[in-house]
């Protein structure tokens, strides 16, 4: 459980089969540590960039605690990578224009939301995700911010997007776009499940 709030349960859904939650958390932590050390950064420096405590970052790296999706996005951004890069993905035999469902990574949050990374293109910095929100669920316990821009399309149901000190209620077919540097949080305050397609662009 994330001491700073709700935790996420990342599950790599690659062609080689599902990993256990514990294995995935350990793998993500090891990758965060490797990226941090490769860049010569301390835990304190990452904490200053993300607002995540040093103790939480240490537990995350050691694989003894999971983190909210927002925390993973913030940590990845501080390390100059995408959240997608923290997970294991099967190497395709050849580059294909198609990403099969079985090749897409899935992150489950304890707030009830599911984020499926449908496609990630590291060359352009574009990531497309299909997000499912159960009634009362949210993207994280609090608003987060990171690099890039985001574009969201609600496919079904209703969602509330907290954007700084603003709140925007979206229905099916509505689109929202904003810089990811603005603190944001997405929640489903309705009585029915909601599905949205979210595109994140970070070309750096």
From TrEMBL:
Transmembrane segments: none
Family annotation (Pfam families): Cupin_2, HTH_3
GO molecular function, one term: DNA binding
GO cellular component: cytosol
InterPro entries from the UniProt entry: Cro/C1-type_HTH, Cupin_2, Lambda_DNA-bd_dom_sf, RmlC-like_jellyroll, RmlC_Cupin_sf, TransReg_Diox_bact_type
All residue ranges annotated as the HTH cro/C1-type domain in the record: 32-86
Biased composition (Basic and acidic residues): 91-103
Residues covered by region (Disordered): 1-20, 91-114
Residue ranges, compositional bias (Polar residues): 1-12
Keywords: DNA-binding
CDD domains (alphabetical): cupin_XRE_C, HTH_XRE
Family annotation (PANTHER family): HTH-TYPE TRANSCRIPTIONAL REGULATOR, METHYLPHOSPHONATE SYNTHASE
Protein name listed in UniProt: DNA-binding protein
Organism of derivation: Phytohabitans suffuscus
Lineage summary: Bacteria, Bacillati, Actinomycetota, Actinomycetes, Micromonosporales
């Amino acid at each position: 459980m994330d001491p700073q709030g709700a935790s996420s349960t990342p599950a790599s859904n690659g062609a080689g089969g599902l990993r256990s939650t514990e294995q995935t958390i350990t793998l993500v932590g090891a990758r965060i540590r490797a990226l941090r050390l490769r860049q010569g950064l301390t835990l304190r420096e990452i904490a200053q960039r993300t607002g995540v405590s040093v103790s939480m970052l240490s537990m995350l790296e050691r694989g003894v605690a999971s983190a909210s999706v927002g925390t993973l996005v913030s940590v990845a951004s501080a390390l100059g990578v995408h959240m997608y890069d923290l997970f294991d993905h099967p190497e395709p035999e050849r580059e294909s224009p198609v990403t099969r469902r079985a090749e897409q990574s899935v992150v489950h949050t304890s707030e009830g939301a599911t984020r499926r990374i449908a496609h990630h293109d590291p060359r352009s910095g574009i990531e497309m995700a299909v997000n499912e929100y159960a009634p009362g669920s949210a993207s994280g316990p609090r608003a987060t911010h990171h690099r890039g821009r985001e574009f969201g399309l609600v496919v079904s149901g209703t969602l509330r997007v907290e954007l700084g000190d603003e709140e925007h209620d979206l229905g099916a077919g509505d689109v929202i776009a904003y810089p990811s540097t603005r603190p944001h949080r997405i929640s489903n305050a309705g009585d029915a499940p909601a599905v949205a397609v979210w595109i994140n662009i970070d070309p750096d």
